[in-house]
Every structure is written in C-alpha cells, then in structure tokens.
C-alpha cells in the first residue's frame, strides 16, 4: 500500500521544486510583467493591506477561510503550492506555526515578516507571558500604517511598472488609518473607566496606543481555559474597577466571558481582534470593524 501524502511530505516536495528553480516565483527574472503580482496573505489583515495597496495590480490569496481561527491553520498541499508560487508572502512570525514552517522551507526569498516592521515604541507584552509579545499589531492603526509602507515598497520592488500605483495605494490607506487613529484618540480621551476586561490578551497594542489598561482572563491563546483562581482574580478586579462589560471574540466561544459577566453583574459583548472576517461579514472590512469596536468601547467605558 502506498503511504499517504501528508502536508509535511508535500511541503518537502514543493521545497525541492522551489530550490531546483532557484527560488520562489517573485525572485524569478522571467515573471510576466503584464500579470498581477501574486500575493499570499497568511490571514485577513494582511489580505486587506495588500488589496488596498495593490488594487487590480495584485492577486491576493488568503490562507485562512472566513470564519476560521487563524492560529489553528493547517496547510493543505494546494496552499503550500500557493506559498511556493507567490511573488510575495505576507506573514507574521510566531502567529501561525504552519506558515512559519512553510516559509522557512520554501519561501524565504519571497516572504515579508511584518513583525520585523518596528516603530520606535516597544511592543506590549502579553500579561501572562511577558517573553512573548502580543502579535495583534494591526489593532494599532499607527503601527499598521508603518507595515503598509513596507508592503508598498516590496510590491514596488517586485513590479516597478506599477510602483506609482502602489505608492498611491499606500498614501490612500495611510490617510484612512490616520483618520481612524484620530477618531480613537478623540473618542477615548475622556472616559469614566480605562480598563478593558478581555477573554484573552489580544488588545495590548490597542490599549497601549490609546491609554487603556487591558485585563485579560487568559494569555495569548484564545482557546486557553482559565483556572478558578484566575477567574476569581479577574472578577475581583472587574468589581473594583466598576466594569460594566466583559469582552469576548468573534471566532471563539463566549462561555468564559459570559460566565465572568454573570459573576460580576456585567454584560458580555464582542470586541473583535479582526484576525479574520465572519462568513456573513457582508461589506465589512478592517476599517468598519475597527469603528464598530470603537463604538463598543465608548459605550462600555462611559466615554463622553
């Protein structure tokens, strides 16, 4: 009986193909200049960036289906082939181990690790694991704009013919992100409370940017189950801070947040880390979800 073709075996075969060709498609001087730049985005915010910057000059493939949890991604052979064939792979090292492994094996020359784009501020550390910084950098519009600059530069290197188009895309996106940042700063300036109690530690960058304090029930993993001692500790903090809202995410179970809310007499509601869009998201995108998050925070924190 023939052995099954596992993703690991498929990756090894695809890596061999890439090496025999010299490198990935983006490093191949024979790339057809009349074709869109092939971009693989590891998860939704990076898809949003590439599409806004590149428009019809790029063809973007998102490795994560709408409604799926990106942390748990397991790559299929077709997705591995997409990574090998891409002109540019956008990913965030440490966020999706399967993508990290695929890039190391077959796409080092075409990959951009957006975690390497570092503004002057230090990254916030997750409350329960200070050695591993919060990966949710896109929840800070200022840092997200810095990543957009770098993505635009890489696209221009790959496709100089459309460099002006990419620069225009970056400028337009930067204007939208600056407006978003101004809205957050203005509307979160005067609030009765500044603590956000979240089901897991996904909002460090957002809290750092706008002077909030995140109190997570668990660390970085959205599937982690808190012990009774941690639940009691956060419940005490929620009562002490007068919290009216406990936040949970769109793509994971709300049961922890609901249990805590019941314990302290608060309401459980969604604060979206925008790791991906729901299947029924309709016309929503990164900007509209961020503004919905802002409305939710203003209500929950008693901002005027």
From TrEMBL:
One Pfam family recorded for the sequence: ZnuA
Signal peptide feature range: 1-25
Keywords: Signal, Transport
PROSITE patterns with a match to the protein in the record: PROKAR_LIPOPROTEIN
Transmembrane segments: none
InterPro entries hit by this protein: AdhesinB (IPR006129), Bact_metal-bind_prot9 (IPR050492), Lipoprotein_PsaA-like (IPR006128), ZnuA-like (IPR006127)
Similarity annotation: Belongs to the bacterial solute-binding protein 9 family.
Protein name (record): Zinc ABC transporter substrate-binding protein
Protein source organism: Luedemannella flava
């Amino acid at each position: 009986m023939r052995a099954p073709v596992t993703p690991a075996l498929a990756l090894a075969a695809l890596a061999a193909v890439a090496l025999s060709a010299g490198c990935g498609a983006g490093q191949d001087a024979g790339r057809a200049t009349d074709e869109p730049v092939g971009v693989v985005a590891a998860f939704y915010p990076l898809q949003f960036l590439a599409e806004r910057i590149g428009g019809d000059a790029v063809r973007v493939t998102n490795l994560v289906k709408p409604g799926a949890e990106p942390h748990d991604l397991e790559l299929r052979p077709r997705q591995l082939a997409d990574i090998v064939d891409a002109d540019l792979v956008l990913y965030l090292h440490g966020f999706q181990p399967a993508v990290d492994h695929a890039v190391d094996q077959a796409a080092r020359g075409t990959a951009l690790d957006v975690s390497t784009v570092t503004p002057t501020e230090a990254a916030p550390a997750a409350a329960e694991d200070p050695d591993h910084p919060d990966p949710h950098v896109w929840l800070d519009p200022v840092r997200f704009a810095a990543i957009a600059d770098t993505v635009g530069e890489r696209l221009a290197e790959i496709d100089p013919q459309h460099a002006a188009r990419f620069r225009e895309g970056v400028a337009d996106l930067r204007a939208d992100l600056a407006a978003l940042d101004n809205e957050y700063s203005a509307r979160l300036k005067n609030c009765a409370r500044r603590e956000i109690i979240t089901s897991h530690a996904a909002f460090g960058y957002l809290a750092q940017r706008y002077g909030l304090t995140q109190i997570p029930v668990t660390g970085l993993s959205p599937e982690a189950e808190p012990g009774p001692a941690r639940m009691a500790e956060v419940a005490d903090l929620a009562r002490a801070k007068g919290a009216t809202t406990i936040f949970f995410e769109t793509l994971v179970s709300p049961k922890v947040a609901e249990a805590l809310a019941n314990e302290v007499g608060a309401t459980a509601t969604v604060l979206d880390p925008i790791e991906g869009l729901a299947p029924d998201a309709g016309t929503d995108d990164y900007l509209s979800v961020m503004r919905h998050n802002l409305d939710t925070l203003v209500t929950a924190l008693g901002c005027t």
